[in-house]
Amino acid sequence: MMQGKMAIVGNAETITVFKAAGVDAFPVSDEKSARETLRKVARDYSVIFLTEDYALMLKEFLKRFDEEAYPVVLPVPSGKDTGYGESFLKSAMERALGVDILFND
Amino acid sequence: MARLNVNPTRMELKKLKARLSTATRGHKLLKDKSDEMVRRFTVLLKEDKRLRGEVEEGLSSALRQFAVAGALTPSYVQETAFSMPTVALGTECETESIMGVDVPKIRLSMQQAQSRLPYAYSEITSEADGSVEMVSALLPKLIRLAEVEKAVRLLADEIERNKRRVNALEYVMIPQLEETIKYIRDKLDENERAAIVRLMKVKSVKM
Questions:
Q1: Of residues A2, A18, A66, nearest to B135 (C-beta)
Q2: What mean pLDDT is reported for chain A?
Q3: Which residues from chain A sit within 8 angstroms of residue B127, using beta carbons?
Q4: Which residues have CB under 8 Å from B16's CB, separation 6+?
Q5: How many domains does chain A have?
Q6: The whole model's pTM is what?
Q7: Cis amide leading into B175 (omega within 30)
Q8: Which of A8, B76, B90, B96 is most buried, judging by how many CB atoms fall within 10 Å of its CB?
């Protein structure tokens, strides 16, 4: 068993409240700094929350975290509805099953 | 379908037959694996959708409240108040295997100091208290969602890979082997017939 830490990366307004709840917060301001921060954070933290607005920007970059079980990068809603969750589920479903089983009703 | 480039001998035939039986068995096993992975995947997918809905709802209301709180307190006060959390959060990370795919299994371990909130009540409005509480309460769900979503990603990749393997066996390997086996058989039969004819000829010449 491994001890891990949790971090949140994202825009300052969203992540402050996580900080108060005990999650280490790393504010970022643009795509480039988000990328840099993630790269650094991924080394020490096992669970990383990333606000959805940045998750959308870094879609390609985030693919590298899908090879191994850790670190886990989870896009979390950042207040604004970006539709990230739905599009993620859809693409995973299409790749693996080829049919839509969730949204067709 | 192209046949393999081999000599039509009995040895090769025997070898190819062994390969064909291995390929067929492998194909069956992989197909079963694929079916089971798809079943697990659908379960996870549904859970992911449900959790995501809940988390989105909870988090957006927490953030809304926090925004209200932010409007009522100067930002520097808020920053100092929130930068020293009393809760030390840690996670215990393990992996679990779903059909040979390692997926994360995370448990939240929380060490808490006396008070839940890292600041004096006089500094910050109650809206902020509420939103911090809400986020704290959401954390177990967020962790579970992280687990599930990662598993969905990993499984989707693995299912795709596995599908490719199954197809390669079904549409390339097996037909190729079957065709080559048939070719060798035909060739060997042909040789045998030629030998018989030759013998008959020799015999008729002698008499």
A1: A18
A2: 76
A3: none
A4: B4, B6, B177, B180, B181, B184
A5: 1
A6: 0.78
A7: no
A8: A8
- Across the range B50-57, mean pLDDT stands at 83
CA distance B22 to chain A (A): 26
Class of domain B10-200: mainly alpha
- Average pLDDT on B183-204 reads 93
Show which of residues 64-93 on chain A sit within 8 Å of chain B, judged by CB atoms. Answer: 66, 68-70, 72, 74, 76-79, 81, 85, 88-89, 92-93
Cβ pairs bridging A and B (under 8 Å): 150
ipTM for the whole complex: 0.82
CATH code at position A37: 3.40.50.10580
Per-residue pLDDT at B177: 92
Cα separation, B49 vs B130, in Å, equals 26
- Phi, psi dihedrals of residue A74, rounded to the nearest 5°: -115, 115
**Bigger pLDDT: A33 vs B36:** B36
